[in-house]
Structure formats: C-alpha cells, structure tokens
Task: inverse folding
C-alpha cells in the first residue's frame, strides 16, 4: 500500500509547530512521508532544529527562495537581511551536511496525481518537472526565479515588477492561468504550493496553497491527498513582524 503523503506549508524555522502538526496527525515514519513545500528556514526561531528534524525524518519536499538564501549566505555570496535568522545554522558543526541535504531538494516534485512547487508553475510549462530538470537552483536562471518567487503573472508567464499592491490585468495570480489549463485536461494534477502568506490558505479543487503565515503568527497547514483534507495548527506566537 502507498504511503500517506503530508505536504506542509512554509515552515521558516517553526520547529515546535511542525512537531505539533506531526503529533496532531499521529505521524508514523513507517506509513507517512513528509513533503515541506519550501522555505524550511529563515525568519523563524529554530531553522537549525527544523532542518535537523526534517533530515532525521527523511523528508522530501522542494526548495524555496529562503532555502536558497541560506545556501548563498553560507557560501558568502550574499549578506543576511535584517529579518533573517540563520546564524545558528551557519555556526552549526553539521552545517555542511544540512546544507547539502537541503540542496538535494528539487524545484518541482512530480507525482502521478500531483505537482509540488514552492511558489508556482509557469503557464507555458507543459511538463514542469522536465522544464526544471538539471537547472542549477543557484544559477539565477529565470525558470528557477519563477518557480520560487511567482505570485502574479500574465497568460504567457510574464511577471509584473511588483506583487504588492496587486497588479492590474493582464496580471493575475499565477494559479488562475494554471486553473484554466487544468480545466482542459482529462486528468489534471493537483498543484501544492506555498510562498504566499498574504494570500493565505488556498483550498480549491486541484490547487492547494499552504502558506498560512505560521512564522507571522498565523497557522501551519498541511494537505493530505490520501485523505483529501487540510489540517493546521496555530503558531505558538508571532515569530517575525509582518
Ligand atoms: Mn517563499
């Protein structure tokens, strides 16, 4: 029998809430697999503990923009921003193992029934997994930027200069274009994503947006396709100012 998949929204170092969620779901390593939708680290209280726990649980998941920030900072390619909290990871004795593990995550993870990506999928990608296969996540390639950063785009996948305030037509949330595509397909795959705390939880047929802003004091959400339900736990506190 297949395992129960648990897709978890943006953790951003919220290890205690992850533990709360796993307890609520009675997580069992023998029968469950865990897939964080990216942004495992940064801004929250315990990125180091979150990474160690996810690695111990042999989690899958995908890369997010903050995960890439961490790796770039560790390599000395950028400096941490004012709201970032990565010191503990950068100073940890197991940092190289943790960063290598983190970078093993793909940008898109495809299943027969489902696609998982951090921010969103380009409306013109016929096969999103193939479109990103072999692309170096740290290369600055526009395909990578799209997958980990998009919120709004037009029908051809062009992004506005800013997402806030929300841009006017022809720009729209990326998933509206994708939803039109799903409507034409015989067996559309559900897309599970994160990255958009301001939009919050998105629960539509075929689209599950799981960033419900845990690190900002919202909730940590998970989608379980085998049980067709979304569950969440409250943040222990607002760990980062909005
Ligand atoms: Mn993000």
Result:
């Amino acid at each position: 029998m297949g395992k129960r998949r648990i897709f978890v929204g943006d953790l951003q170092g919220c290890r205690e809430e992850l533990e709360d969620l796993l307890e609520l779901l009675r997580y069992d390593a023998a029968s469950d697999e865990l897939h964080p939708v990216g942004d495992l680290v940064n801004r929250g209280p315990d990125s180091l503990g979150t990474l160690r726990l996810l690695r111990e649980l042999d989690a899958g998941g995908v890369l997010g923009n903050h995960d890439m920030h961490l790796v770039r900072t560790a390599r000395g390619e950028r400096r941490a921003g004012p709201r970032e909290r990565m010191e503990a990871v950068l100073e940890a004795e197991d940092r190289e193992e943790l960063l290598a593990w983190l970078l093993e995550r793909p940008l898109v993870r495809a299943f027969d029934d489902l696609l998982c990506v951090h921010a969103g999928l380009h409306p013109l990608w016929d096969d999103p997994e193939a479109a990103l296969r072999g692309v170096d996540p740290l290369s600055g390639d526009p395909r990578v930027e799209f997958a980990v950063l998009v919120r709004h785009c037009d029908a051809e996948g062009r992004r506005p200069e800013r997402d806030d305030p929300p841009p006017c037509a022809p720009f729209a949330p990326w998933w509206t274009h994708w939803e039109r595509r799903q409507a034409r397909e015989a067996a559309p795959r559900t897309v599970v994503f994160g990255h958009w705390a301001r939009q919050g939880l998105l629960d539509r047929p075929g689209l599950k947006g799981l960033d419900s802003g845990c690190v900002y004091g919202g909730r940590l959400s998970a989608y379980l396709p085998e049980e067709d339900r979304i569950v969440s736990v409250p943040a222990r506190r607002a760990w980062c100012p909005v």
In short: The chain has one domain: 4-234.
